[in-house]
Amino acid sequence: MKIFLLGATGDTGYEVLKKLISENHKVKILVRTPSKLNTADIPNLQKDQIEVIQGSVMEAEKLIDLFKDCDAIVSALGTGKNNSYTEIYSKGGRNIIAAMRSNQIKRLITITSALIDMSDTSTDNFFLNRIIRPNFNKIYSDQTRWETILDDTTDINWTCVRPTYLVNKEFTGRYRIKNQHCPPKGRKIGRSDLADFIVKVLYSNEYIHQKPVLAY
Ligand SMILES: NC(=O)c1ccc[n+]([C@@H]2O[C@H](COP(=O)([O-])OP(=O)(O)OC[C@H]3O[C@@H](n4cnc5c(N)ncnc54)[C@H](OP(=O)(O)O)[C@@H]3O)[C@@H](O)[C@H]2O)c1
Questions:
Q1: What's the Cα-to-Cα distance from 197 to each of 82, 151, 175, rounded to whole Å?
Q2: Are strands 176-179 and 212-215 parallel, antiparallel or unpaired?
Q3: Which of 11, 74, 105, 129 is 20 to 30 Å from 18 at the Cα level?
Q4: If residue 100 lies in a helix (H) or strand (E), which one and from where to where?
Q5: Which helix (H) or strand (E) holds 201?
Q6: How many Å lie between the centroid of ligand 1 and the Cα of residue 206?
């Protein structure tokens, strides 16, 4: 399969990239700054599987052209440490869906956050409500807009993964998954385990039109 990956210069995207090429897939990646891509721990022989394209998810016409030879799309887009107003999820997401429709691509894996679901009583506590949610509210607002767009999108087989707090930690392969709400007392998930789940669901029919939450 040839996968189109967005966000490969971010920590989660890079884990997804490594996982995909270790499973012999070809991966086309869109990066704003190619020099930021550190491929030091990717074996030289596998580097041929990666095609790097410079650009942004906001370039709608370009995406239509770039998606042409791809079978599925993974978006690990995010804003890094920047918590200011963003439209990369909603506007970027609309561009992704339009380009998928133009190319008859059906499978999409995307990421938001466990904390955007206010109906989840397991994340309803003082610390999350008073400290974390206000701090990241501009990000969560756009992730919510993006999920609303997804809710109205039935012709694309999307899965929207909602991680809990992300940490950089060794791969374990042992994590819990619960649809929509956080697994009981779940607090965090490692990016390599998140990448493991993303790549697993990419080829399966599981979690289509669902929002699985991941936690240890
Ligand atoms: N941190 C947490 O605890 C946590 C918890 C739950 C969910 N999440 C979500 O998980 C996702 C992954 O987070 P992360 O911390 O691993 O990654 P991240 O550091 O936020 O990386 C984001 C990636 O998106 C790229 N990007 C941003 N704007 C773009 C644009 N306009 N066009 C193309 N690429 C663009 C960045 O490229 P550049 O390198 O060019 O900036 C980078 O590669 C994010 O959506 C985040 O909100 C995070």
A1: 26, 21, 9
A2: antiparallel
A3: 105
A4: helix 90-102
A5: helix 191-202
A6: 24
| Block residue for tokens 């989660």 | 12
Q: What percent of the chain has pLDDT over 70?
A: 100
| Tens-digit pLDDT profile for residues 10-36 | 999 999 999 999 999 999 999 999 999
> For residue 17, which of 54, 65, 52 has the smallest C-alpha distance?
52
Share of residues in the chain with pLDDT > 90 (%): 96
Does 32 sit in the ligand 1 pocket, CB within 6 Å? yes
Contact 202, 109 (CB under 8 A): yes
CATH at 161: 3.40.50.720
Q: Using a 6 Å cutoff on CB, does residue 12 contact ligand 1?
A: yes
Domain count, the chain: 1
Question: Which residue range(s) make up the domain with 201?
Answer: 2-215
Q: Does the beta carbon of 78 lie inside 6 Å of ligand 1?
A: yes
Quick one: three-class SS letters along 148-168? HHHHCCCCCEEEEEEECEEEC
